[in-house]
Amino acid sequence: MLSDTWKLIAVAICLVLFTADTVLKPQDKPNRMVFFELHRGQSPTMIGVMRDDLIKLPGRGAARIRDALMRGETLTVWQYELRKTEDGSYQEVPERQIELVAADAPLVTFGARVRLPDD
After folding, report:
1. What one-character DSSP code corresponds to residue 4?
2. Which of 42, 74, 94, 110 has the least C-beta neighbours within 10 A?
């Protein structure tokens, strides 16, 4: 039969192992949309790429997209549109999916600004 001291030591070891597994294990980040601007036409368009899809591409920031396009890859992204809600506020919502091609490579910049229309 185990003494109380050995039982406490066993419990302590289990707690240390559980804590180490929880703390040292890399935490999964939720997949989220990363926004860019596409400078085609008169005004920039907000586009979005899912984070998991973006990190599959080599590079950093907008260079990931530009480099992929310059290598001849075609990328499908979401184009966002600014809509006015019933309460009068504005919301960016996905409008449609569009394809980016090699000619779009220099037109993509990291980050996006929301531009409110002049009412």
Report:
1. H
2. 42
